[in-house]
Fold this sequence. Notes:
heterotrimer, A: alpha/beta, 6-stranded mixed sheet, 4-stranded antiparallel sheet, 9 helices, 36% helix, C: alpha/beta, Rossmann fold, 2 domains, globular
Amino acid sequence: MTMIKVDHLAVSYGHGDSLLRVVNDVSFEVAKGETFGLVGESGCGKSTVLGALAGRNRQWSGSIRIDDETIGLKRSISQLAKQQMVFQDPFGSIHPRHTIGRTLLEPLEIHGKDNRQERVEKALKDVGLPLNFRYRFPHQLSGGQRQRVAIARALILEPRILLLDEPTSALDVSIQAEILNLLKDLRDREKLTYILVSHDLAVVAHLCDRVAIMQNGGFVEVATKAQLLADTVAHPYTRVLMDGSRGYVASRRPVDTTA
Amino acid sequence: MTQDPGTAMTKSGYFTDLHNWLINEDFTSTRQARLHKAYVAWLSLLANPLAFAGFAVVVTLVIIAALAPVLTVYDPYGQDLTMALKAPSASHWFGTDEFGRDVYTRIVYGARTTLYISILVTVIVAPIGFVIGASAGYLGGWVDVVLMRVTDIFLSFPSLVLALAFSAALGPGIENAVIAIALTIWPPIARLARAETLTFRNADFVVAAELQGARMGRILLRHIVPLCAPSIIVRLTLNMSSIILTAAGLGFLGLGAQPPMAEWGAMAAAGRKYLLDAWWLTTIPGLAILVVSLAFNLFGDGLRDILDPRNA
Amino acid sequence: MLKPPENILTVQNMSVEFPTLSGVVTAVRNVSFSVGREKVGIIGESGSGKSTVGRAIMRLQPPQAVVKADRLQFEDINLLTVPEEQMLSVRGRRISMILQDPKYSLNPVMTVGEQIAETVILHERVSRKEARQRTLAMLERVNIRDPQRVFDLYPHEVSGGMGQRIMISMMLIASPSLIIADEPTSALDVTVRQQVLSILDDLVTERNLGLIFISHDLNLVRSFCDRVIIMYAGRVVETIAAADLDDAQHPYTRGLLNALPSLDHPRDRLEVLRRDPAWLEN
């Protein structure tokens, strides 16, 4: 069953002479319950693809179908609830002057949901935070706790899809492990579909079933998790990124060095 | 945030418990979280003597205005020409004016006029300035250009001259003075609101709300207002003194409060004719204006330190 | 453990304390290690005190901080007692520091070439012309293909990778014997990181320097450095040869390794680090 179907997606920024095409003709499908990764270096367009899916970037062409509905430039309120986004920076993605409870109530009020108190409590419980955290302000929380709040805010509308934009790259290794485990548990329990953007192939290979490797706004290769782990990827650039996640390779000497 | 041993030790029993409950960050209710913020703000106000002095004067002014009939024995409008131009004495603390009215009584009632004008101006100016500035900052594009050019036009006039022109056109009187002052005070507020909105416009938490379907009104009210409010409140407090001075200036020029209304600027203007014989007629209202505007300025400066969102 | 043949830097029982309103906070506690002509990695999570160690060695700690140590010896200089005037000739000339983001370390209103030449003139009192020659040679050494053109660029005109190579050339032109690199590549993409690190690697080997490489990235430090110091809450919990990291003894080091997703050792669930209060006693 297909959850997301993207055909010939192209995304650009700006107008007229300053028009900048960031994503060129990208097509992919993500099945229900699948986790699809987008990997690449900065500026390759991976976050832009995610932005177009989330509705953040409206300057796109091609077709996007989410849960068998064609998505236009304007989305209905139920279409907005279908996919939710988790941002990279846990310090910038939560309103600094709202209590955690306020942050979680906000989407419920926008979407006119009932049983708000129960839903807030359930969301906090789902992401493993104590209930009295709802009275706290973000500056009293650690980075990992804030990222849990961000995930709770995304889950509270009961979406089918989570769009994860480098959800762990601002966190320490041990906290990253907790968040990745949490994401894995939530996916299995709530039957969620994920799209994960990351620069680290090890993180992507841990969570994803299939990975698209991006360079210069297009897909270089779509590899399966098995291919990554067995080291049978086809494209040399994929291998470069795999080496990168292993660390420094002493034997390799730079070929072209003028940046 | 850790508890300051100095303040904790001076409190005992119930107050220690209350202090600990307020300072504790392990909140069990939204009310405790709010009270905690207010209490921390109060403690930092206490730690800043100048700001606290300003705050005390402002509070005193409010109390004086509220209790004016209790604090005075004379009628502020009651004339007694036999008692005209008497120097300060035990029965008339600040002396009497050319109609024999008690200057102390008129100063106390004048506090009402001053507060009336400054509060009314603030209540008019804050929402106008915020809506114009925040809309310009949030929507951007041609809306921003149009709104900001209008703001620039208002900014380019000296405020007292503009207020003078408006009062002259609308006719003298305290309500018209309020409108005239409000028209000159809103542009800097709008500029400030726009600048603050621009810094938060593309923050992840605003984008998150947009992606969840929040409309512009909701984002401005729920998300932008709490972030802009501190700097706008500080700005308005600092503006209080210029409102008071402009109001006094208009009163002095005869375009604000009309006789026999007790208003500090108008009182100073009336006393000008007797400057050499009766110094108290100009000096006392002048001092009142000075003290109150200074207090608002000190309080505003302190508020800036306390409310600054970058300290949170 | 590898025994370095000759120590450039010896740190014995160093502590760094910050007085705050609520008492003294000890950011670094009783840290001991030595650096020879080798690449030593310092690994730790945020708040572990790893950057504070680097700054304390450079004597660049904030003014209110108190640095205590039994011994803090850099070659013939006692860093604990050396006067600040003498420190000026040590800093940048004999110990250099490379920071995370070159954009903040370079002066935005001077061309990068002038800034490097300035370093040469300041430390070696050579003529402007000679400084330029030295700078161009150094830029070429860090694999910048067109040094004449790059010399006249301003910091905002160069990419992240090029900026970091410029920083490296600036830090190495005075021929220091110790380099402290604080997260030098965390702002860079993997391919650029590989280039920058291999240049740094070559220079360290070629000039026989000591390098302290501060990072949060276990895999990077493991593959780049000779020895690894693992810090936790201001303490050194373990010092181990990079090649033996998989056999690390301390539960914190083991926990970090197991928390890391890996392409070579995939596991269904990552191990969550259990922090043991006993680690804080030493």
